[in-house]
Amino acid sequence: xxxxxPPDIKPSEITPRGLYLDRRRxxxxxxxxxxxxxxxxxxxxxxxAVKTRWGEGLDVTSVxxxxxxxxxxxxxSDKSSPKRNAAALVTRxxxxxxxxxxxxxxxxxxxxxxxxxxxxxxxxxLRCVEGWSMVIPWVGVPLGRVLQRFEPTSxxxxxxxxxxxxxxxxxxxxxxxxxxxxxxxxxxxxxxHPLSLLAVxxxxxxxxxxxxxxxxxxxxxxxxxxxxxxxxxxxxxETRPKTTWNIAQPDEYGFWANVNPEVDHPRWSQKKxxxxxxxxxxxxxxxxxxxxxxxxLYAGMDxxxxx
Amino acid sequence: xxxxRRPDWAKRGLFALCLVPLAWLAFDVANGAxxxxxxxxxxxxxxxxxxxxxxxxxxxxxxxxxxxWPRLARLRRMLGLFAFFYVALHVTSYLVLxxxxxxxxxxxxxxxxxxxxxxMLAFTLLLPLAITSTDAMVKRLGGARWRRLHRLVYPAAxxxxxxxxxxxxxxxxxxxxYGLVLAVLLGWRVAKIKTTSKSVA
Lengths: 307, 201
Ligand code: HEM
Hints:
Chain A is α+β, with helices and mostly antiparallel strands. In chain A, 15% of the residues lie in helices and 21% in strands.
């Protein structure tokens, strides 16, 4: 369930999900009900997410905008259709396979994948390659910590992520506008960078389907299409993964896709962006404002060529 | 003819009808019903109606001839002018809402981006047609020259469809559909010229 709230109410002013659940439990108990559905062990608690310093001082985009203006072609090819088609994407149960160059491959439920790690809330800027941006409070865990548990070998130079391929649940896949399933990839040092987040929630609640439920990547210094949604497979590999948008239009969507105001998209400039909710465009920052954290990853690389 | 003429209700009705998309857009703006990115939505809505009206105005002559419906001709100018009206609003929304008069960026867009170059060329070709749409202008130019000038609408429409085609990311269904309609409308004219020149010969 997604708790809708107007943008001017602070998350802290809303009854935390835990309290609300407790209250319901109390009422159910009062009704002499002993069996509590949903009280099962592995459920993730979003309200308990540790607040972090990320995004301090940023104006968060309204939850309404962030959940109704989405690029998720698997749920529809314009921005408003993913929300309309959200009901198709059933996310329970959801299993994630981790495989490839690692010592402990395996398949496990999304709750178990995340369970050992405390959830964190991180407010990140999200810059779409199309020239708009949002500020979103994600809930998740650093990707690197999750990956470590599978003990990648020295041959694990890249990490490949794959979205669910199921035209029933992702009806946009019935049309071959892209080469399904959607695949994205990161170099191992990008994947294990402390900023890279494996997200299960936003705005203090579960991810809505249109935002990539139940599990998505968030790589805030890269254009949004790198942050793959509804992940079912993570694979360590020795060779660079072939990624979906890069296959579709290699001159428009690079593998690296680092936010870079100096490198135009062939069809538009990337110098500025429209922050959703604001009238005037604002300047786009190198690496989406995360240069001091990530610029060293690309030392010596020609970012105009390897865009 | 002297004396008051009967009001042309078809013409008046069409005039009102052509304003509906704009009224609808204004309504949506006022109600905040344009979603998270209203500026983009306004620009796109206006672009969509610009191309639709352009194609509709190009359909008048084929329909008139195919159905032997000569009275349709009197609606053509109004449809063409409304097409231009929506194009002009579409361009204005780009200049003002989208770029907010950032002329260096606008210039860079127009010369660097294929779809913007096509859009600008289409607009430039339509401009003299709008200016010469008055009765006085038709008289001044003379029928033959006026008709020759107004053939510019054909390349303008082709450029407008290309403009749309090159700006979409992956799903080219819509521009292809408009392209198909345009191909039929232009193809019909070519076929017509061929058959009439044959019958003359
Ligand atoms: C005959 C002239 C033109 C026609 C018929 C036309 C039509 C269209 C159409 C149908 C769209 C797509 C809307 C959608 O995605 O739903 C569009 C988009 C657009 N047009 Fe035009 N256009 C014309 C000229 C221009 C000119 C001269 C400019 C700029 C100076 C321009 C700027 C744009 C922009 C910026 C977009 C949208 C890009 C986006 O949102 O991704 N157009 N136009």
